[in-house]
Amino acid sequence: MKNIAMRLMYDGTNYHGWQFQKNALTVQQVLEEALSKLTGEEIKVTGCSRTDAGVHALDYVMNFKTNTNIPPEKLPYALNYHLKRGITAVEAWEAEEDFNARFSSRGKRYVYNIWNGRVRNPFYADYSWYLPYRIDVIKMKNAAEYFIGKHDFSAFMAAGGSQKTTVRTVRYCSVTEDEENKGLIRISVEADAYLYNMVRIMTGTLVEVGLGRIEPDDIPRIIESGDRRESGLTAPPEGLFLKKVYY
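and the corresponding structure tokens:
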């Protein structure tokens, strides 16, 4: 039996997240049904991340066991024929027997899009958080630097997380304005691992900095507090993209 790893892209707008649920359509369900139909086997897949409903992925990795004779390099093309709109298999390869898309990961990078302008951009409606109030990007940039490093991120975890430890190492955190698309602000975060809704809460906190409700130098105090009530609101899911998975 082969252990196949596969890269995907998907638009999470019409899916209730990655992980299988009994009463809602998820990305995992669609992939397992399509792979089972393609191979004639009962396929179960392991994903690199449990993305929430409405969250997108530009680079998502999963793995599954199979006896199929379809060459790995041809699997994406065959699978795409059976996939629903919004999900695309990009590439596949035979991985080591012990490779696990989730637990073999050494880190991930997420990007969050904010559309900041007087009017809504219809082309970013499902792919950004629309904020009509002008936000101070310089303050947000300054605040983002405080997240970098090894910290206990309890203050940036939503209720319901099941992690054994709340300590994470953020390798990179930045806020940039798109020079071509005026009004598009991107928050990029790279870490070894994440807590439940961590990036969305970090984003919401940075937005509150941009709105003047929190000062940039308040971030270390909020991190130290470990209190979710001290950090900002949870940004909506549609602006979040899984950008890259590292192994």
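(Above: one complete record from the training split.) The chain is about 20% helix and 30% strand.
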